[in-house]
Write a structure and sequence with these properties.
Serine Threonine Protein Phosphatase 5, Tetratricopeptide repeat, 2 domains, 26 helices, about 0% strand, rod-shaped
Amino acid sequence: MIVKTTRLFICIFLAATWLLLSCNKPSSRQVIDDVFKLVYVQPDSAAWLLENKIIPASLTDSDKADYWYLLTLSHLQTRRSTINDSLISYSVQYYKDHNRYDLLYYACRFAHWQARDKKAKENFLQDAVAEAERLGDQTKMSNAYEMQVYYYYGERRYPEVIDACRRWEAVDTVRKADAWYMLGLNYGRMGCEDSSLYYLAQAAEIARHMERPGAGHYLRNYIDELARTNPQKALEIYHLLQQRYPGKYTNTALGIWMGLGQKDSVEYYLSLMENGDMIDKNPWYITRNVMTKARRAYWQAKNGDSFDIRDLAQFVDSTSLAAIELIRDEKERLFMQNKLEQNNQRVESKRQQMLMLLLALLFVFTVAASISIFYIRNRREKLLATEEALDALRQLLWETTIGRKDIKDDQSSIPDSRFFKKVLLQQLGIIRLVATSPTEQNKELLQQMASIANDEIPTESLLVWKDLYPIVDTVYDNFYTRLKVLAAGRLSEKELQLCCLLRAGFSTKEISVVTQQSVRTIYQRKTNIRHALGMNEKDDIVSFIEYSGEASSVVSSFPDNI
């Protein structure tokens, strides 16, 4: 029965554990590790995992730094606004404190891109540059100087652009074309046309020979700058550009033909640029589309034609309306995103509550199951011990009552072990209780015997050994008297009683029941008796006592004058 119950509890426990595991989601650290692999490949998926599968407040410091770093990176990769990614500064500080310099540069870069005030931008820039220079890593220094170049150029701080470009080209010869291209644009903004054309030409030539992806872009800007001073040379380079990138950079030719004054070509390219298929609807190219309209106005004014400003105004209005529509759509998207996040947080909160409830129930169930198993096992052991004790009492009862019928009438006057056992059981009141009570009440008897073992009822008050010792001497040829002489004070009273019970033929189990001592205690007392009497471990106690007692009596019977 107990085996079946244990198996049932184990099955229920395993089922509950499986249920909890199936309800549990992947750990936050696992999600972050997955995002590290996805952020450059599938940035949309990376951002979704971070925003919907992780609660930042529950993260450790290290995971929190990685979380804000990856979230900002995923937003940049998907061209989303980083206005809410201000906690990238936490990642920067954490990476600095823990010497994680590889991530520190990128964290600084992202913080620089998302920062709204100039002071914060410059602080992040200086931080990134100083860290890269301290490490002496040329790749990191190249990236840091590039950050400075684009920042200063956007702020129209042209002398600082030149200084950053010089440092950039000094540490990174592979990207010298990029540094020179920015120098060319910078000198052009400063009005230094010769320097601008020189660096743009060098950048285009290096990029073209190195098969750089930006070679066409560099050539186009070089042509645009050259068209103002040398349109004929610009046209030659444009033909090279068309050979390299056929069908692209059509608008670049427009400036050349304007500079050369070729009306037919200008009209052709203006019409081509104003064609509905050529007008790019992408907001990133609004500048190019507006410039097409502006060039039309400039060309008409240059040739004395009337120009209706309403065309340009209408286009700008349509652009403004499109921008307003985009802003409205973005607000709606953010509203729905926030609502979805709130719903996800509610679901997550309920899931956490359910998980905690299941854990609590599992804990209670485990404790209850353990207590039940322990209780059932303990009760079963007690029941087995009770049955064994009952069998021992029944055996004693049979020997003292029914067993006497087997004795012949002419031997009934001979005292034997049955007489001693009967007297002992009568003192305990066991004969009446066991003989007259049904089985269930026999258990009450055993409970009474158990109370004796718990010192609730002292055994000494039931067994009167001062009356039993003379019976032992009478039945067993002065066994107790000889034992007292042999022991000579080396045995305790309980050990003397144990020797008497052994002589009466009591088994270890019967002695345990009668004296209400454990079987282990009985064995230990036997060992103590052997040691006290100088016996070997395997010697029989009763035989040794009787033999030693007879030898002593023989010696004492000799006359003193012999």
